Amino acid sequence: NRIDIELEGRLSGADCRIEGYIDGVNLPGAQMGVDLRVQCDALAVPEGAVRAALLGDPGTPLGLKGFFKEFDPYGVLNMDVQLVRLTGRDQRLQILGSFEPLGMRMRIDSFPLPMDDARGRIRFTPEGIRIEGGVARHAGGKIFFDGRLSDVLDRFADFKLVTIHYAGVTDSSSGNLTKYGEVVEHTAASVT
Asked: Which residues, 6 or more positions from 79, have their beta carbon under 8 angstroms from its beta carbon?
């Protein structure tokens, strides 16, 4: 009882492709197996009432909820993710792959500065969320960052933002680096 899927179309104005399968279609939705690759170019992230509905829906994967809670993103991104869940009871839906912000406005919940023109890659792995080659602007300065967020993909719980390396924050008026080579660990109160 398997359905193979291969779709191309537009979502919120973005070109998207979905390919893979759903297994156990005779089972209740939460027990169906899934292996779908979803790719979208220049996808506008949901905002307002659509975002609120997505976050309030118990069927929304926790990893996706965690992304919105942790990064509070606004704007456009490229998405290449794999949605995977084994067929049967008590199987968790995993999100693997990456989002690439294309000049988005966002903030990292456990980092104190809001960011504009954010770029880089946010990678979803079984170990958590990694930020790779992150570059953003704040108050005329530039922020460079790489690092890993632990536990967000598994559940909404207290978690620690670990090994975020700020290569530098520059002041646009003087061009001076105000931070360099600093490894910062923040502990977030909660992502619930």
From this structure: 38, 39, 40, 43, 97, 98, 99, 100
Crossing angle for the helix pair 62-71 and 48-56, nearest 10 degrees?
A: 130
Cβ atoms within 10 A of the Cβ of 140, count? 9
Q: Are 51 and 67 in contact (CB under 8 A)?
A: no
CB atoms within 10 A of CB 191: 20
Encoding tokens for residue 155? 């559940």
Cβ atoms 101, 77 nearer than 8 A: yes
DSSP state of 74: B
Q: Give the residue carrying structure tokens 């005329």.
A: 140
Q: How many CB atoms lie within 10 A of CB 122?
A: 23
Segment 47-80, tens digit of pLDDT? 999 999 999 998 787 777 878 887 889 999 999 9
Radius of gyration, CA atoms only, the chain = 18
Contact call for residues 105 and 88 (beta carbons, < 8 A): no
- CA atoms of 186 and 151, how far apart (whole Å): 14
For residue range 6-52, what is the model confidence (pLDDT) as tens digits?
A: 999 998 889 999 999 999 999 988 899 999 999 999 999 999 999 99
> How remote is the C-alpha of 171 from its chain's centroid?
28
